[in-house]
Amino acid sequence: VRAVSRRRKAAQTSESPVTTGGLTIGDVGEFGLLDALGLGKRKFRSGWVGPGDDAAVLPAPENPIAVTTDLLAEGVHFRRTTASPREIGYKALAVNLSDLAAMGAKPIAYTIAAAFPPDLELTWVKDLYRGLDEAAKAFGCPLVGGDTSRCATIFLSLTLLGQCARRGAVLRSTAEPGEDLYLSGNTGESAAGLAVLERGEDRADPVFAPLVLRHLRPTPRLGLGRELARRGLATSMIDVSDGLAQDAGHISRMSGVGLRVEAERLPLSAALSAAAARLGLDPLILMLSGGEEYELLFTARPEDRKSVAEAGLLCRTDITRIGTVFEGESVVLLDADGKPIPLKTGTGFDHFRQRT
Amino acid sequence: VRAVSRRRKAAQTSESPVTTGGLTIGDVGEFGLLDALGLGKRKFRSGWVGPGDDAAVLPAPENPIAVTTDLLAEGVHFRRTTASPREIGYKALAVNLSDLAAMGAKPIAYTIAAAFPPDLELTWVKDLYRGLDEAAKAFGCPLVGGDTSRCATIFLSLTLLGQCARRGAVLRSTAEPGEDLYLSGNTGESAAGLAVLERGEDRADPVFAPLVLRHLRPTPRLGLGRELARRGLATSMIDVSDGLAQDAGHISRMSGVGLRVEAERLPLSAALSAAAARLGLDPLILMLSGGEEYELLFTARPEDRKSVAEAGLLCRTDITRIGTVFEGESVVLLDADGKPIPLKTGTGFDHFRQRT
Q: Complex ipTM above 0.90?
């Protein structure tokens, strides 16, 4: 369930009529399409969460059920030339598990719809499923069903079910002014790993290898997500899949709050620092705009700082307080002197517009 | 969750090593692929149903949850030239609901993964969702999430969740010798409707129109499926999506029983009779091999004949007793004199092999 932004502010203003004559999908882009379809504005009964968060939530007798669907299209989300089928399979499941992590949910099971060109080698498909199986075993999410067909290019869609904490799923829309903003692990490493692959650099180079691995075999923060949800510590949560700045923007818009990110607090890993220097890339930009990092970005009450730190220790995951929530709107990046650093807008990944 | 046949008999014999060197997906076909991946042989804990039935089943505190995933690829499952986007959307959801019906489950919600070519008109997509919405409202299955991307050809994957009866889902694998075999409604009409569309006949012709409608707007037998499940009447059940003969074969193989179908008992509708004559097609072949009919094929104990008839009356659905279950294997078609009519094998629809 990718971001179908429920723009609180936008919903309050009068709607402009949607003119669609002659427009193509490419014209409106992914987010425009979801807006045009009105998917973010649908009403659901109490206890339900529809499109717009990391997963949908359905009420159930004990723990609510989280459902998340993602699709991976060859040439858009992966290329057969830069990743092995086993890596593609592993990652396909891992990134969906990250959506469950961001709801604080425990994986139950998944289904897959897969379309392959008829001339694709069977060994490729077997290796894809080997990668899926590896992630399924590592994170406890068995394959229970699916469907296959043929297609001109490879197309995969996974749907995962998860069990939320009894107190419910952690949403994107429930941050409150005065709270702290946290990030698990660090961001930018996956983006640097992708740059290594795309530029055809030596992925076995010891400076690059860990970043490439991070890009190809992300680790969903399932344990931390559940712990934060179970103990009611995270007041809102999202996983970093579009980029830290953009994903912070989702929390900001959906919660109707502003988020202050202190650039100096962002955790810069030594590995990223070294690789960025070699690649001639700005680590700050990688940390802020790199997608597919699959860390958890969440808010928590200031009085829970000690408990949040404990949760990180328990789950053996670094947690960094990177900013605060304020009464306002949008995401503001501050330098060491507290002065705003301009954030480029529209740097997010749009599956219809970006050509890969 | 399409048929991943758990061939009981096959599993008892020694396995031949799977040689995959140089084989393509097209070589092994859809069912061969699932066998090669070993998806039908996986073990699940008690209370779980994995691949191989109309839906997977997950245990839950009160009613078990059914999950079914289907994919629709342009050029394989639909063509933009023969169906409108609204018809495609309606049907996409309706056929998945039929899988829930075959488990005796009540729809809860669905998600969709959709990939579109960037040059596709936005109005096409809006009409697709209009069709989806129509079916969602008609059968009570709201859209709760999804994902979109671009792709060379249109690709849709739907995942539905359903609530099973408390006593559990009705499986394909639980028919017993001595039971009766039943069919809801009638088969062949959808196949005739497809022939009308494929041959470019006048779909507004009063002889053809109802069959085309049946093909484009199938009605999942949700009410009947639930009633049969709730009252424990159906001992096994499947929906007719591959063709009556082939779907009977799934029950036969998975239950380890033989099925006797009496040709004379098969319900031939006046509409099919008239259309088949005009099209020069054999109605019996249409009734037996026509896929996408979305009727329920189920078994029940002989002592429940009256109760089964009552369930049909209650759900305003014709139910016909078309045969019996016997100790044996495979599906046998008998003529009016009780003599076997040879059934062509391999007439089922294989998404990798069949070129459309």
A: no
